[in-house]
Each structure stands twice: as C-alpha cells, then as structure tokens.
Write a structure and sequence with these properties.
- The chain is built from 22 helices and 16 strands.
- By secondary structure, the protein is an alpha/beta fold.
- It folds into 3 domains: about 1-20 and about 145-230, Glucose Oxidase, domain 1 (3-Layer(bba) Sandwich); about 35-140, PtsI, HPr-binding domain (Enzyme I, Chain A, domain 2); about 250-555, TIM Barrel, CATH 3.20.20.
- The strands form 2 sheets. Strands 1-8-7-3-4-5-6-2 form an 8-stranded mixed beta sheet. It has an 8-stranded parallel β-barrel with strand order 9-10-11-12-13-14-15-16, surrounded by 7 helices.
- The longest helix is centred in the middle third of the chain and has 25 residues, at about 230-255.
- The two termini are about 35 Å apart.
- The relative contact order is 0.09.
- The protein binds phosphoenolpyruvate and magnesium ion.
- The site of phosphoenolpyruvate has 10 residues, from strand 10 and helix 17.
C-alpha cells in the first residue's frame, strides 16, 4: 500500500478499481497552411460543435456543474477568442488547431499570472475548451472517461469539468488528480456531484504502477494505492457513519429555524457565489443567504453587467428565498480578483491594494448600478441587505451609506452594512456602527490581516487559525459595538466549535458553505446561550489557538 497526500476537495471516501485517464496528446500540425478560408471554416464548425456539446451537457447537469459548463460554452463562443485565432490563420498561415490553442493560451496565461487560486483555475477551463475545439478540428476521438461503465476511482493528471460532466456519479467511487486546488473546477464539480475527491496529489500517476485498487479519502485529501484491509475497513465504516449522521441531522434540524435551547434565535445562512448553489444550500437547511459574493458572478466578463441584468439575477435568488434575507456583498473586484473590464495598474502587494470598496471609490458608477439593482429587487418584494467589502474607516462607511441612500435604499427597507475584515474596522467598530445596521465579519481576510500572513500561503497556515486569540478578541470587540447586529461570513462560521464561541460572543448570524449547515445547526441547537457564553469566555482565556479550539470542541454535543 502507498499513501499519497493531496488537498481535500470533496467530502466522503470511496474504494474501487483504479481507472487511469491516459494523457491524450494531440498531434497538432506545425507547418503553414495554404487555404486559410478552409481552415477558418473548419474552426467555425468546430466551435459550433463544441459550444453545442457544452450546452447540451449543461442542460443535463444541475447546480454548479451546469454553471461551469455554461461558462465554458460562453468561452467557446467568445468572439475575441475566435478573432485571435482567425487572425493567426489569416496573417501567419497557422493551422486552425494551433491557432485556437495559442489564442486560448493568451487568456489562460494572464489568468494564471493572477495571485488568485480561483482565477488560476479558470485558466485550466479555457485551455480545456480550446483543446476540445482543436480535437474537433483534427477529428480526434473525444475523451475516454465517458466510456466508463463499471465502478472505478478515476486517477488523472487533471480532469476538465466537461469530462466530469459526462460521468455517472453512481459509477465513480472517487476522483484523484495530480493538479488542482479546492477551488479548481474538478473540485467544485466533484462536490456538486457528491463524488469524494482529492486533488493536487503530487506523484499520483507515477505511484500507480499496475495498482488494482485505489481509495480516495476526500475528507483528509489522501489517496491510498492498493489500500490494505485496515484502511478499507476504516474508510467504509466512516462513510457509513457519515451517511447515517447526515440523514439523522437533516431530519432533526434541517428545515427548522435555529434557536439555542433557551430560545435565542441564531440565523444559519449560506455563502453563495453562483445562482445554482442556492438550491443546494436551501436543501441543507439554510435560513437565508449571508454572503452573496457578487464579483464571482462576473469575473470572466469583458463588459460590466448592467442594472437590469443584475436585477434579474437578484430576482432569481429572491424567488427561491421568499421572505428569507439575502445579504448582497457589493463587488470585491481588484487585486486578486481582477476583471477584464477594469483597468488596474499592477500592484506590488495586491492584498493590500485597490480592492473591495477601494475599487468602488475609483469606479463609483459600478457601485451605483449595483446599488440600484439591489434597491429595485427590494422594491419588488425581496428582503435585502447590502454590505461593502474591505471597509477600513468611518469615512468609507459614510461614503457607502450616502451612495446607498441616494440609490433609495432606506425607502426600500434595505439594511446597510460593512464587512469587517480589516483590523482598522475592528478598532473603530463603534464609529462605524453609528451609520450602519449590521456588520459581517470576514474571518478569512481578517485573520490574514491581523497576522500579516497571506491566506494563500500554505507555509503560513499556522497563522490562519480562526481560534487565534487575536481573532477571537477582534470578534468580541465588534460584538460590543452598539446598534448593529453582527454576522460572520468567513470560513470559520462553518466550524461548529468556532460557531459556538461566536454565538457566545454575541454573533447573531453565521453564514457558511452549504455542506457545513447541518453540523453547525446541530451544535447551536444543543446548547443554551449561557453555555455558549461560558465556552466563549473559556476560549478567550486560552493561551493559544490550540487550547481555545480544545475547550470549544469539548463543549460540542
Ligand atoms: C472573508 O474575507 O472572510 C470573506 C468572507 O470574503 P472573501 O473570502 O470573499 O474574501
Ligand atoms: Mg474577504
């Protein structure tokens, strides 16, 4: 047995015979072509076929997978991509397959150069689309994963989402890839199909040899080549226990509003970055949306979305939410989330650069359009709140409130808030609270800025612990500001032990990824507010993050 470590990408575990995705090298002609007209026509036909194929797959898919495939279909049909390829066919006599791959590579390398893991993952999507078009031009056979007909664990260098889309989840016990991160599309799609997955498993293919069985532990991000009986037994009993517990929790707390045992209402909401995620979150028992990451909806766009388009999107959310609250975060563009329609100078320290409300101040027309869409959604009957990311000063909060009021937010009953993710905002929370209705603590950024430790930097993971004394003290300070309700929308909110501490500190709303909702609901409903306060006090007294985590974990039911 060999044990290989990677990144935990999709929960659960599975054991089955290994199915290795062979690297299908394309033999792309190198020389110059004579008939540019014929090459261009072949390119157009291939693009049409691939766009159609991706749209068909999307129509048969659900949730995030459908979103990913739609986005890829849009990439395939992108006029600028076509224009780039056409001009190298006409001007440099390049063969169509080479021209489209090179045209895609230009976009992909720009995306890849961004510091954002998310954007780098989009580079792979573009490469996959262009490779599909090139295969079509050359008449090469489609990918082989679609021929899988019996239960397997797939091992691959990488697995493009359009390949995953053709899979029958009942036949795929797990996915393991050498490339990828938690936010790569293989990971997102595996989660949406409920297939256990480990990605970023270095040396996976070389370690396989003639292995017969593969086990994927998607909770730990570990792959076992030819797992022994002990590992197989452990994984299968853990999987069975997980299934049973989720079923039991869903029946007990799934569709109920969350209260502590002594009646304190705590709203358990969902973080959403794509329209299709909401359905899954509501099924898990989300009581609203505590963070709509609006920028994620438009990252690949070359034109900013207009008011009507944004309104349509928000109305779609509201139809699903009914009278449950939708907290819209205004665009957090800039720095590590660059968008093609915003020109930004390169920055030495993007995380400390022009992002969030700072971008809005440079482009107030973008913010105003977004605020108008929010107000109109509220006028149409939605329960809306809107908050600005990266607020650091009372003056910024004031500026945001003035623009929201000018857009008609007060009359429409839209609550106005700020994310607290910059340490300065914690220190001046009292002053911010005078103008705002609520705060939502973004623990991901707040932890990184409190410790001056890049959240993407694996080597500094020990400084990203949400139980750190500095973060807990910051949450306490924010909750002391009078006149606002306080939510938390960073990843920490989805950790049941941390959530108990937050409630004890005075947090009223916790917003998280759909898969955390049931466990957090179960933890909060099992304790009284007094008990949560006692746990929070003990966690605040703890000398370090590990000790704070221990006291909080011991308090869990
Ligand atoms: C955060 O910083 O905690 C947050 C929720 O925002 P994002 O992760 O989108 O930066
Ligand atoms: Mg943030």
């Amino acid at each position: 047995m060999k044990e290989l470590a990677g990144v935990a990408a999709s929960a659960g575990s599975g054991v089955a015979p290994a199915w290795v995705q062979q690297n299908q090298e394309l033999d792309i002609p190198a020389g110059k072509i004579d008939d540019a007209g014929a090459e261009v026509a072949a390119l157009h036909a291939a693009i049409d076929d691939v766009t159609q194929e991706l749209n068909d797959k999307s129509a048969n898919a659900e949730g995030e997978l459908a979103e990913v495939l739609d986005a890829q279909a849009m990439m395939a049909a992108d006029p600028e991509l076509l224009e780039g390829a056409e001009s190298s066919i006409k001007e440099q006599s390049a063969p169509a397959a080479r021209a489209i791959i090179d045209a895609g590579e230009k976009y992909a390398s720009v995306l890849e150069a961004s510091e954002s893991e998310y954007m780098a993952a989009r580079a792979e999507d573009i490469r996959d689309v262009c490779m599909r078009i090139a295969r079509r031009v050359l008449g090469a056979p489609p990918s082989a994963v679609e021929a899988i007909s019996e239960p397997v664990v797939i091992a691959a260098a990488e697995l493009p989402p359009a390949d995953v889309a053709g899979l029958d989840p009942k036949l795929i016990a797990g996915i393991a890839t050498e490339q990828g991160s938690r936010t790569s599309h293989t990971a997102i799609v595996a989660r949406s199909l409920g297939i256990p997955a480990a990605v970023g498993v270095r040396g996976l293919l070389a370690a396989l040899g003639d292995a017969s069985l593969l086990a994927v532990d998607g909770d730990a991000g570990v792959v076992y080549v030819d797992p022994d009986d002990d590992v197989r037994h452990e994984l299968s009993s853990r999987e069975e226990a997980r299934r049973q517990r989720r079923g039991e929790l869903a029946a007990r707390v799934g569709d109920r509003a969350t209260h502590t045992t002594d009646g304190q209402r705590i709203e358990i909401a969902a973080n959403v970055g794509a329209a299709a995620e909401l359905g899954a979150a509501l099924e898990e028992g989300a009581e609203g949306v505590g963070l709509l990451r609006t920028e994620l909806l438009y990252l690949e766009r070359t034109e900013p979305p207009d008011e009507d388009e944004q309104l349509k999107l928000l109305t779609g959310f509201i139809e699903q939410l009914g009278d449950r609250r939708l907290v819209v975060r205004t665009f957090d563009f800039g720095a590590d989330k660059p968008v093609p329609f915003l020109e930004q100078d390169p920055e030495e320290n993007p995380a400390l650069g022009v992002r969030g409300i700072r971008t809005a101040r440079e482009h107030p027309e973008l913010l105003d359009t977004q605020l108008r869409a929010v107000v109109r959604a509220a006028e149409a009957g939605g329960r809306l709140a809107v908050m600005a990311p990266m607020v650091a000063t009372a003056e910024e909060a004031e500026w945001f409130v003035e623009r929201a009021e000018a857009a008609g937010a007060r009359e429409a009953g839209v609550e106005l808030g700020a994310m607290v993710e910059v340490p300065a905002a914690v220190l001046v929370a009292g002053a911010l609270a005078e103008r705002l209705d609520f705060f939502s603590i973004g623990t991901n950024d707040l932890t990184q800025y409190l410790h001056a430790a890049d959240r993407q930097q694996g080597a500094l993971a020990y400084l990203q612990d949400p139980f750190s004394p500095a973060l807990l003290a910051a949450v306490q300070k924010v909750c002391e500001a009078e006149g606002t309700w306080v939510g938390v929308c960073g990843e920490a909110a989805g950790d049941p032990a941390w959530a108990v501490v937050a409630v004890g500190l005075g947090v009223a709303e916790l917003s998280m990824g759909a898969q955390s909702i049931l466990e957090v609901k179960a933890a909060i409903t099992a304790l009284s507010l007094e008990e949560c306060r006692a746990v929070a006090a003990a966690a605040l007294r703890a000398p370090d993050a590990a000790a704070a985590r221990r006291v909080a974990t011991e308090a869990l039911p």
